[in-house]
């Protein structure tokens, strides 16, 4: 700001001088601007329920994902990326708004997104970006802030899915992951011809439950066997009621019909019962969507699996082990398609000279349990679901093959994209721009993350909780119909088997973590009272 006193009397000449100097500065700046590289394009790739344990860049023991890995190899892999509320629609709302769930209002999957809010696509669009949203949306209200959108209604379907468009619902034939990529490339083909930069949200349904792969991939993956996680038969000793009462065990709560793909008649004949009755309707609903030839290929592979299952008549742990294998076969086969299609998109960008100045972000809406603690699904602040994969490629800025260990969160994505595009970040956004991290700059970064999950009572019965995580410790408060605290020392107990909240050896840590939680509740303006 120019000080008003500068206009007084004999200071005028100094003022004129200063103006001249300023003028030089301004002209230097505009010179620099005209030389500066064009604003980057952005492609935000998000899959649904893709666990970092199922990405080879994170050292997966289960699958090779060479195409997704390209993003990390040619860019930066984030080794400590987390969400703020581990469930689908809430995560998406946090990403769009850069605000925690309690501020953007979308606390659980039942809430409709208030689409009048400020979102990063809207801001980019106002600042000259072409914007599009293709794939899974899950926010119920119509997408806003996009020149073009084509989204799945609700969870969408794997085979021959419907899509919502501005013109109404359309039915497409094909496999959902391939279709979403086809539509994305079609849009890019037009966008690349215009002078404006583009921002595309390219969001897969896969590998969301109930894991229906393509023929090629189910043929291959039903032949495979996978290592079991050490805690597949976790008895939840050492933790509180929340873990014990959650309904997401492979043994009990996973469906033999919808999830394991066994015909409901066989399930009944063997005396088994799915945890929820509608599972068998979902089984039929999914298969009924297939064309005649798709169904024939399916029967050719899953028919013999059904026959063998009937013959083996498995019980107890043997049945759980079998369900785990079936789960991994279909889940990972669905990821195989995501990987192939990400490769197709990356190839397209390279072939069209777009790779150099396009930021590619790969992430998931949250993490997922692949049998750890005996579970599938997500929701908990425990590591597997609190974490999310994150890798970013931007050849102009990011050093290839770099790795980052800072505590980053999906709360930071909007701010990062705006910053990278050279657009101001609104004060109301609560996350941090990761741009300095992408550049490899040494900066002061946060030392703790805030988390808050709300969807209870609800499917999978994961109790409401909030908490804080530092690089070493995690404090969680389960509340609502319970009032229990858990504290984990992630260095000593990385798999979170032992709650040390009441261990006298941790009393100081406990106090510090309580303090941090109070600070974060205040900083993020969450109304939750944190009783000690
Ligand atoms: C469905 C799934 C649940 C899952 C929720 C939320 N059941 O209800 O297992 O937790 O979606 O998932 S299913 O058999 O219908 O697939 S989310 O990713 O959308 O939050
Ligand atoms: Ca999800």
Main sheet specs: 10 strands, mixed
CATH fold-level topology of the largest domain: Alkaline Phosphatase, subunit A
Proportion of beta-strand residues:
5-15%
What is the number of independent domains? 3
Mean pLDDT: 93
Report the span from N to C terminus: 48 Å
Protein traits:
alpha/beta, 16 helices, 16 strands, 532 residues, ten-stranded mixed sheet, Arylsulfatase, C-terminal domain, Alkaline Phosphatase, subunit A, 3 domains, 35% helix, binds 2-deoxy-6-O-sulfo-2-(sulfoamino)-alpha-D-glucopyranose, disordered N terminus, binds calcium ion, globular, single chain, four-stranded antiparallel sheet
Tell me what you see in this structure:
The longest helix is centred in the middle third of the chain and has 36 residues, at 316-351. The protein folds into three domains: 41-211 and 335-448, 3-Layer(aba) Sandwich (Alkaline Phosphatase, subunit A); 218-225 and 250-328, no CATH class; 465-523, Arylsulfatase, C-terminal domain. A ten-stranded mixed β-sheet has the order 7-6-5-4-8-1-9-10-2-11, with helices on both faces. A four-stranded antiparallel β-sheet has the order 13-14-15-16, covered by helices on one side. Strands 3-12 form a two-stranded parallel ribbon. By secondary structure, it is α/β, with parallel strands linked by helices. It is built from 16 helices and 16 strands. It has helices at 12-35, 66-73, 88-97, 101-104, 120-126, 176-191, 215-221, 241-245, 264-269, 279-288, 292-312, 316-351, 383-386, 413-420, 435-439, 507-523; strands spanning 41-47, 76-78, 81-82, 130-136, 148-152, 162-165, 168-171, 198-203, 358-364, 390-393, 402-404, 408-409, 449-453, 465-469, 473-478, 484-489. The protein binds 2-deoxy-6-O-sulfo-2-(sulfoamino)-alpha-D-glucopyranose and calcium ion (CA). 2-deoxy-6-O-sulfo-2-(sulfoamino)-alpha-D-glucopyranose binds at residues 48-49, 87-88, 109, 138, 155, 208-210, 258, 282, 377, 459-460.
